[in-house]
Amino acid sequence: MITKLNSSHSDFQDNLSKLLAWESVSNSEVAQTVDDIIANIRNTGDKALVDYTNRFDRMNAQNMGELSINTATLKEAFDTLDEQEKTALKTAADRVKTYHQKQKQDTWTYTEDNGTMLGQKITPLDRVGLYVPGGKAAYPSSVLMNAIPAKVAGVEELIMVVPTPDSVTNQLVLAAAYISGVDTVFTVGGAQAVAALAYGTQTIPKVDKIVGPGNIYVATAKRVVFGQVGIDMIAGPSEILIICDGKTNPDWIAMDLFSQAEHDEDAQSILLCPDEDFIEQVEASIAKLLPTMERQDIIATALKDRGALILTQDMDEAVKLSNQIAPEHLELSVEDPQSMLDGIKHAGAIFMGRHTCESLGDYCAGPNHVLPTSGTARFSSPLGVYDFQKKSSLIMVSDEGANVLGEIAATLADGEGLQAHAQSARYRIK
User: If DSSP codes are grouped into helix, strand and coil, which group holds residue 141?
Assistant: First the structure.
């Protein structure tokens, strides 16, 4: 049902590498399709976007007016929710907003003794496009996690695209857009929506950055348009890594492993533990609980193909292996997670303590659930307010400062053979 590995075995690293291996989701056929779609959107704009939407999402729209949703409709969607859903959505949104307000960066300057002022100016992006998946599942939490940091950052205009196959809209997604401050919603999706956001059409304005998850075509399109616009990341399958000391309820650990495995068959769930008996207990819990899961086939496939229960020599080795794996979600299911924190170098989000399950972070804890996957936590961070702000350097040199800096710059420019650079600096030396 799930692979079991022992870190002391000679073939362990080879087996771990195979387990972690993940090939790019794209291929030449997908790439060609995406290239063709992008070219058509660039050439004919709205017409191509309507045609693709009708073809891929089984719709019958005549123009882009039929594929747009105004703010009044978003509010109506929120108003139709039952009170429990309203409260849950509002509370989650408030917590996400509170957390991300702590990330907001401010402009700063300092002045040197000779009067030269240096600093950094923080400016929000003008317009951002938010891609929200539709079709197989709806993700209002994805709306909150992408839209709220953008608005906290000060993004003036936030345009959301969401596919609505067979013209079926999800009220919770629209309600999430309303309380997150989304300005405009278009019911389009796929590579064609990414292209429309990147290059603009007669109806959809060009954005500065595109964020949000999608399928293979969306991910490939984001990769292609990067440079024309900014993107958040190219995300791989969801992952969870649990370090446990063997003293947590094994049913809890099994369900936490399920929580990522149920996303899709390529998701990855791994347990690191130095207690062999406990690993056996978790394996038994998996066997017991799996038949009760609605998505048991998906979970079973993910656990069989990419999951593992790994016996480590001790907790220190578990931490070292965790850093090697650099997981998207890391649970420290131990008595004193604070004492382990200094040793953790690479993880998208760290869930500390036995009662901190990963799913709380997905929905309402506050930190962003858009996280680096496939080992990219070694060099990247969760989505945040800083992704929607950009920095400009500030330099204002005083008369006295020009004398000092001019000599330095001219000397270095001479060394590089750049005469105009050197002379430009020397002109300002008294």
Answer: helix
**Residue 160 class from Cβ within 10 Å (0-12 exposed, 13-18 middle, 19+ buried)?**
buried
CA–CA distance, 103 with 153 (Å, rounded to integer): 9
Higher per-residue confidence, 234 vs 104: 104
- Please tell me whether residues 13 and 96 are part of one structural domain: no
Query: With bands split at pLDDT 50, 70 and 90, how would you rate the model's confidence at 186?
Result: very high
What are the tens digits of pLDDT across the range 284-306? 999 999 999 999 999 999 999 99
Structural domain boundaries enclosing 310? 3-22+237-365
- Please check whether residues 212 and 345 belong to one and the same domain: no
Q: What is the pLDDT of residues 17-60, one digit of tens each?
A: 999 998 655 688 999 999 999 999 999 999 999 999 999 999 99
pTM above 0.90, yes or no: yes
Distance in angstroms (rounded) separating the CA atoms of residues 55 and 59: 7
Cα 338–Cα 342–Cα 343 angle in degrees, nearest 5: 110
Read off the tokens for 256: 């936490």
CA 127 – CA 119 distance, rounded (Å): 25
Q: Which residues are catalytic?
A: 328-329
Would residue 386 count as lying in a domain? Answer: no
Q: Are residues 45 and 150 in the same domain?
A: yes
Query: 151 CB contacts (<8 Å, ≥6 apart)?
Result: 158, 180, 181
